[in-house]
Design goal:
It comes from Bifidobacterium callitrichos. One of its GO terms (cellular component) is membrane. It catalyses: Hydrolysis of terminal non-reducing N-acetyl-D-hexosamine residues in N-acetyl-beta-D-hexosaminides. The N and C termini lie far apart (72 Å). Helix content is 46%, strand content 12%. The protein is of the alpha/beta class. β2, α1 and β3 form a beta-alpha-beta unit. It is globular. The longest helix has 27 residues. The chain folds into 3 domains: 118 residues, 2-Layer Sandwich (Chitobiase, domain 2), CATH 3.30.379.10; 307 residues, TIM Barrel; 189 residues, Four Helix Bundle (Hemerythrin (Met), subunit A). The chain contains 26 helices and 15 strands. The strands form 2 sheets. It has an 8-stranded parallel beta sheet with strand order 10-9-8-15-14-13-12-11. A 7-stranded mixed beta sheet has the order 1-7-5-6-4-2-3, with helices on one face.
Length: 678
């Protein structure tokens, strides 16, 4: 079977390279045993325990675990006699009426075969289809990159839950993105109040990942994206623009500059402290120094150095020093590739050992930058995204298009692997569970790219396997619901943060408005207004410009409301049939959809206040949408949202998100009082 057609009743993700169906059914014994060979390298028999847990959940039966040739089991887990003749991670799975055998080339291979078997048990219970599978991964590295720093720090329990899911879908690497949310010694001013991860958390999680075949690679910002550190009294002098350290906190501002002034030798001491302190907690032989988006390099304190040798040379020299520092400790450096691609001459200056993480998130991305790195001879890992940032609902279609293209280019240009990224810009409003569809698409494409060429087919498979949805419709409904996001979280944050806190306009935020829409959707008249530098508009004018810019999207709010309500009803009906196994996901879906309905109403209301409704068909209806009721609905929704937040995350920056919602609620009530007086 080639895996391209939808399977009846059950499915496997990622799809195996080859699978042959055999006649008959293998019925699991009532009192069975799993024999796991010591040679598998699973010292605590975690893989056997995973199978036992799934057998219990699917059948209610209790099984035993043993090892050695005197304790035969109906399920046998073992290693190939000649493992070096097969690629790492490869395995065979045989299911017959006499028993089940998983044979791996190595520990990772056994693990991968066990995950395939677990998926079958979850769907088929004690009656497994007889079949023979021979399987291997397309990419050596199949990684996931999780943002744990821009507002949401996961609980250790949730991190373990996520590691379990990554294991089930055969990922073999995980990185946690850290800027300021790790409790480094001597840096409490940077991480205070962020619910930071601790050394104990990392040690425990590193062990947990390793036992499940996941390499936990340390990743920390060492060059750019040091917003919180460079706002402190202790470290602000190391930034390019220390004079900006006392500006009010802003979600959008956090995403912009905040690069080290590398002409100050103390900057290198800070970077190496972060590296040296952090790497000791991990068993991995790799380290990701990040070094991305150093937007203000050479523009502030280091401008004299930039004028003398150039920004590209500055960047190449600094990251090379960091890479050499790692190499002296036996670590292989990794770094994001965006700056090197912006200045291609950097590619020739980087150490040969460095792995470039080539991130490209455009759903219609071309192969240009993947080809550029390949032609330079550098080792690269292609990095698409699950497309959840800045939104309550996941943009599944964008994730599909981005991930499938990047996997294809990675295979074409012989990339070492794929690292699927999951970002949380602007406070990480996106619930981590919204990333599950994109994560599973990434798993499929990293293992067997192009084998499932149809998005609708892929979403049906995920709906059945992950969400126990017999209809296969759940993710299609969720994907369609995301198209009804007319006024989104980043639109609201932009509207609020145009206020500089002193009744003026934050011009930095004003400059970001153009990026809120794709180039082909940007209204020319508003673009001309934004590009007019002869005067700075007032706060009211700036907000009106924003709403004019988004008016064609905002105008769809009422039509979208019907789609969102229908989606909520259909998803609730589907998840009810799946039972308590996906209750958490069901609640997350409901809260996200209701939140988007409210955001759409807020957009319509703000547009009405700003006089933009003259161009909107829905203006008459907006006059009847009582602002006080909308404010109350937002506050009630935030309570439900906060409850869901606590299911996966520490307090971290939840309060900042609450402040966004409460500020809007206060504005709605205030504006309503003014209108009632008039």
């Amino acid at each position: 079977m080639n895996g391209q057609t939808p399977l009846q009743g059950w499915t496997i993700v990622p799809t195996p390279q080859t699978m042959q169906h055999k006649a008959g059914i293998a019925l699991l014994p009532m009192c069975g045993r799993i024999n796991e060979a010591r040679a598998a390298g699973d010292d605590r028999y975690i893989l056997a325990a995973q199978l036992i847990d799934d057998i219990r959940a699917a059948t209610g039966l209790e099984w035993d675990i043993a090892t050695g040739d005197r304790w035969p089991g109906f399920i046998t887990l073992t290693i190939l006699d000649n493992p070096h003749a097969h690629p790492s991670g490869s395995y065979t799975l045989d299911i017959t009426s006499d028993g089940v055998t998983v044979v791996g080339a190595d520990f990772e291979g056994v693990r991968n075969g066990v995950q395939t078997l677990r998926q079958l048990i979850r769907q088929c219970g004690a009656a497994l289809p007889c079949l023979h599978i021979e399987d291997r991964p397309a990419f050596e590295t199949r990684g996931y990159y999780l943002d744990v720093t821009r507002g949401r720090v996961p609980t250790l329990d949730w991190l373990k839950t996520w590691a379990d899911k990554l294991c089930l879908y055969r990922y073999n690497q995980l990185q946690l993105y850290v800027e300021h949310t790790f409790a480094f010694d001597g840096m409490s001013e940077t991480w205070r109040g962020s619910s930071p991860l601790t050394p104990k958390d990392i040690l425990e999680f590193d062990d947990y990942c390793a036992e499940r075949g996941l390499e936990l690679v340390p990743s920390v910002s060492t060059f750019g994206h040091l917003y919180m550190a460079l706002r402190t009294q202790s470290l602000r002098d190391l930034g390019e623009f220390p004079e900006s350290a006392d500006e009010p906190f802003g979600f959008i501002d956090r995403m912009r500059h905040h690069t080290l002034n590398i002409s100050d030798e103390r900057a290198f001491a800070l970077s190496t402290k972060l590296i040296d302190d952090y790497l000791q907690l991990f068993r991995s032989d790799k380290f990701n120094i990040c070094a991305d988006e150093t937007f203000d390099l050479g523009k502030g304190r280091s401008k004299p150095l930039a004028e003398r040798i150039g920004v590209a040379a500055m960047y190449a020299d600094y990251v090379t020093r960091l890479c050499r520092h790692l190499e002296t400790q036996g670590k292989q450096p990794m770094m994001w590739g965006d700056i090197a691609l912006e200045h291609p001459e950097i590619l020739e200056q980087l150490p040969e050992e460095v792995i470039l993480l080539n991130w490209q998130y455009d759903p219609q991305v071309t192969d240009e930058k993947i080809r550029t790195v390949a032609e330079s001879g550098a080792t690269q890992i292609v990095c698409p995204a699950v497309w959840c940032w800045n939104a309550l609902l996941p943009r599944i279609d964008d994730a599909w298009n981005n991930i499938t293209r990047m996997a294809r280019y990675g295979a074409q240009y012989q990339a070492q692997g794929m690292l699927v990224t999951d970002w949380g810009d602007l406070g990480h409003v996106n619930d981590p569970r919204m990333a599950i569809p994109g994560m599973i698409i990434g798993a499929q494409e990293a293992w067997n790219p192009g084998r499932v060429p149809d998005e609708a087919d892929m979403l049906r498979r995920i709906s059945r396997l992950e969400y126990h949805d017999a209809s296969g419709e759940l993710l299609d409904i969720l994907a369609r619901a995301s198209h009804a996001a007319c006024f989104q979280w980043n639109h609201l944050v932009t509207w609020l943060e145009l206020d500089d806190g002193q009744d003026g306009v934050n011009t930095g935020v004003l400059q970001t408005i153009q990026g809120l829409l794709p180039e082909n959707e940007r209204p020319d008249d508003v673009i001309r207004t934004l590009q007019n530098e002869s005067r700075t508009p007032s706060l009211a004018e700036s907000r009106r410009i924003l709403l004019r810019y988004l008016k064609h999207h905002i105008a769809l709010g009422e039509t979208a409301d019907h789609l969102l309500q229908t989606s909520a009803r259909r998803i609730s009906a589907i998840t009810a049939t799946a039972g308590p196994r996906i209750a958490g996901n069901a609640a997350a879906f409901r809260v996200a959809i209701e939140g988007q309905r409210l955001l759409n109403r807020v957009g319509l209301r703000l547009a009405s206040e700003a006089g933009v409704t003259g161009t909107l068909q829905s203006c008459e209806a907006i006059q009847h949408d009582d602002a006080a009721n909308l404010a109350a609905a937002l506050e009630i929704w935030m309570e439900a949202y906060a409850a869901q937040w606590s299911m996966t995350s520490r307090d971290s920056e939840l309060q900042r998100l609450q402040e966004v919602v409460f500020r809007v609620a206060d504005h709605l009530r205030s504006a309503s009082r003014v209108q009632s007086v008039l």
